[in-house]
Specification:
Helix 1 packs across helix 8 and helix 4 runs antiparallel to helix 5. The chain is globular and about 50 Å long. The chain has a five-stranded parallel beta sheet, with helices on both faces. It has a two-stranded antiparallel ribbon with strand order 1-7. The protein is of the alpha/beta class and about 220 residues long. Helices cover about 50% and strands about 15% of the residues. The chain has one domain: Rossmann fold, CATH 3.40.50.300. The structure holds ligand Z5A.
Length: about 220
């Protein structure tokens, strides 16, 4: 009788991207449960943030300020936190065979600071090379939603941080920036239609996750 024997899963790095109110946090809980059900241990982390020091940098980045914040200052702080996060959390977890689910990663810098703020993509790419050269997510789930719907969902929260206070056109550039990245890297990106119901989004996630999780070997005994 055939017995399903799960092969030890190769540690997998999944990043979650998308605009405001796209439902990333909601879906990460679902993804974690799917992995748990498959017997896969995962580390859930986020950017900006993910270590005590990088969380301090997050607070610096998102706080409202009386002075204007230079876009390069913003970008460099994102990458300073990222280096700390990659070295102290992401690489050690993957090396220990754990899966990593990261709520935003470097693609967010291309989308927000690149497409949104207008910073040079080649400069961002060179920072990426210095900070985590050989490390890229195995799969990036892009939660794509039209900006008005996303803002409407996010608007139900009480407080907006410094970046969330940007205007509609900023978030439209961010969305187009993400979609361009997805088009350029179809092997890594999976686009989720985040405007659907939560159940429909989860069904789409099942489809994207299955090839990674179902690495089960059929053994005849
Ligand atoms: N940032 C950057 O600029 N550069 C970088 O390099 C990095 C980040 C790494 C913080 O990110 C900010 O940092 C972010 C980008 C910038 N700024 N912005 N804007 P964050 O990820 O912490 O913050 P966020 O994007 O603002 O997350 P969010 O608004 O909380 O979105 P979400 O996690 O995608 O949404 P959610 O909390 O899961 O859902 C929002 C609401 O919608 C909630 O009430 C849900 O119950 C509801 N929801 C969720 N799914 C559905 C569906 N399918 N139908 C109906 N309602 C739903």
């Amino acid at each position: 009788m055939p017995v399903l024997t799960p092969t030890p899963p190769v540690a997998c790095f999944i990043s979650i991207e998308g605009g405001e109110g796209a439902g990333k946090s909601t879906s990460i809980n679902y993804l974690k449960q799917c992995l748990l059900n498959a017997g896969i241990e995962c580390v859930h982390t986020r950017e900006p943030g993910g270590t005590p020091m990088a969380e301090d940098i997050r607070a610096l980045l998102l706080a409202h300020r009386d002075e204007s914040v230079d876009p390069y200052t913003e970008l460099l702080l994102m990458f300073a936190g990222r280096r700390q996060h990659v070295q102290n959390v992401i690489r050690p977890a993957l090396a220990a065979g754990k899966w990593v689910i990261c709520d935003r990663f470097t693609d967010a810098s291309f989308a927000y600071q690149g497409a949104g703020r207008g910073l040079d993509a080649d400069f961002i790419a060179s920072l990426k090379q210095y900070v985590h050269g050989d490390l890229d997510p195995h799969m990036t789930l892009l939660f794509d939603i039209d900006v008005a719907t996303g803002m409407d969902r996010a608007g139900k929260r009480a407080n907006f941080d410094r970046i969330e206070k940007e205007d509609f056109s900023f978030f439209e550039r961010v969305r187009q920036g993400y979609l361009s990245q997805a088009q350029a890297q179809p092997e890594r990106y999976k686009v989720v239609d985040a405007g659907q119901s939560i159940e429909q989004v989860q069904a789409q996630l099942d489809v994207y996750l299955a090839p990674l999780v179902n690495s089960a070997a059929v053994v005849d005994v």
